[in-house]
Design a protein that fits this description.
This protein is mostly helical and 87 residues long. Helices cover 79% and strands 0% of the residues. Helix 4 (45-59) packs across helix 5 (68-85).
Length: 87
């Protein structure tokens, strides 16, 4: 997340992040990384973004890496956590 947030704007991330991550996972698979591990990592991407955003908000609230894309990924996590806590 740090690398992607450093290389791309929020708008670019919205356009390209899925493709970039797909290429990354494909590369890992070609290296022989276990498919189960890759699938688990894929399921945690939004959590990694949320943690990165949490760090940035505390460390540098005006940082340019805080953008609509990172906020959207954080909201995915917060929404899924809220839904899993409702009875």
């Amino acid at each position: 997340m740090y690398l992607l947030g450093s290389c791309f704007t929020g708008e670019e991330l919205a356009l390209y992040a899925d493709d970039i991550l797909a290429e990354y996972y494909s590369y890992l698979a070609n290296l022989g990384v276990d498919t189960k591990a890759i699938l688990e990592w894929q399921s945690l991407v939004s959590y990694a973004w949320a943690d990165f955003e949490r760090f940035l908000v505390g460390w540098s609230p005006g940082n340019k890496k805080l953008n609509a894309y990172s906020q959207s990924e954080t909201q995915k996590v917060l929404g899924s956590e809220k839904a899993s806590q409702s009875y």
